[in-house]
Specification:
By secondary structure, the protein is an alpha/beta fold. The protein has three domains: 3-39; 44-141 and 231-239, 2-Layer Sandwich (Nucleotidyltransferase, domain 5), CATH 3.30.420; 143-213. The protein has eight helices and five strands. It has helices spanning 3-12, 21-39, 98-110, 125-134, 144-152, 157-168, 176-193, 198-208; strands spanning 50-62, 67-79, 85-93, 118-121, 139-142. Strands 3-2-1-4-5 form a five-stranded mixed sheet. Helix 3 packs parallel to helix 4, helix 5 (144-152) packs antiparallel against helix 8 (198-208) and helix 7 (176-193) packs antiparallel against helix 8. It is globular. The termini are far apart.
Length: 252
C-alpha cells in the first residue's frame, strides 16, 4: 500500500494529511494483525447450513520487481440458523486449482465449520471436485448468477434481456413443481429461438435448482442468497433441528 493511498484514506476519514512512511507501516502492521486474527478465529460458535463460495480478481504487485499481476481473492460466506451471513474465510490463490480449494475449505473445517448442508459456487472443475471431497454428505448448487452469465453467452445480444427476464422469473415462483415447469418452458422457448443455448439449460437444470430440496421459507423472492444476492440479512426463521429440517434428501 502506497503512502499516497493511505494518506488519502486517512484524510477521507477526517484525519490530518501528510502521513509519514513510518506511520503507514504502523497502520498496515496493525491492520495485518486484525485481519489475521479475524481469518483465524474459531467457527464453532454457530452452525452454517449454507455456505457460499466465490472469487474476485484483483491486481497487485509481487516479487522483487513489484510486477503487477492478477490474483484471485476467494471468499467463503456462511448463512447461519437465524439467517444471518458471516464471512468465514478469505484467501488468495489459484481459483482454478483443486488443491488450493481443498486447502482453503480444509482450513475452514479445522476452525470448526460444521453442519453445512448446501454449498453454492460456480462450476469450475477444481472447485467442485474440492467441494465433493471436503463436504461429503452435503449438496451442491451452481450459483445462478454465474450460470445466467454462461447461458447469455450463447444468446445473441438482441435476445439477452428477454432470456434474462424469463430466467429470473424462475426464482420468484414459490411452488417447486411450478419452478421446474417454468424452467422447461424457458428451455422450449430457447429451442425455438436460440437452440445453441438449450444444452446449457438442460445440463445445468438439477444443479441450479438444488435449492428446491430445502425448506421453502429459505428461498423466498429476493432472499435467496444462493443466487448471489447482496442483502445483509436473510429474512428467514430459525432452522428446525436437523432431523426435522428436510435436508438435501427431502422430496418436493
Amino acid at each position: 500500500i502506497s503512502t499516497r493511498k493511505v494518506d488519502a484514506l486517512v484524510e477521507a476519514l477526517g484525519g490530518a494529511s501528510g502521513i509519514s512512511k513510518s506511520e503507514v507501516s504502523r497502520i498496515c502492521q496493525g491492520l495485518d494483525e486484525q485481519v489475521k486474527a479475524f481469518l483465524g478465529r474459531p467457527l464453532d460458535h454457530a452452525r452454517f447450513p449454507y455456505v457460499y463460495l466465490d472469487a474476485t480478481y484483483l491486481h497487485g504487485r509481487l516479487g522483487r520487481n513489484m510486477q503487477v499481476v492478477s490474483r484471485a481473492v476467494v471468499v467463503a460466506i456462511g448463512i447461519n440458523a437465524l439467517g444471518y451471513r458471516e464471512v468465514l474465510g478469505i484467501a488468495v490463490g489459484d481459483s482454478e486449482a483443486e488443491g488450493f480449494w481443498r486447502q482453503f475449505l480444509g482450513s475452514l473445517k479445522e476452525r470448526g465449520l460444521d453442519g453445512t448442508r448446501l454449498v453454492i459456487s460456480d462450476a469450475h472443475l477444481g472447485l467442485t471436485a474440492a467441494i465433493k471431497r471436503m463436504f461429503q454428505g452435503s449438496s451442491w448448487q451452481r450459483c445462478r448468477v454465474h450460470f445466467l452469465r454462461n447461458l447469455l453467452s450463447h444468446v445473441p445480444k438482441a435476445g439477452q434481456d428477454m432470456v434474462a427476464a424469463a430466467m429470473k422469473a424462475v426464482f420468484v415462483i414459490q411452488a417447486p413443481d411450478q419452478v421446474r415447469a417454468h424452467w422447461q418452458r424457458v428451455t422450449e422457448m430457447l429451442r425455438k429461438q436460440f437452440p445453441t443455448a438449450v444444452p446449457v439449460m438442460e445440463a445445468a437444470r438439477d444443479d441450479v435448482l438444488a435449492f428446491l430440496h430445502f425448506p421453502q421459507e429459505h428461498w423466498l423472492p429476493g432472499v435467496n442468497y444462493l443466487g448471489g444476492s447482496r442483502q445483509l440479512r436473510w429474512r428467514v426463521p430459525p432452522l428446525p433441528p436437523p432431523a426435522m429440517a428436510g435436508g438435501g434428501d427431502s422430496e418436493n
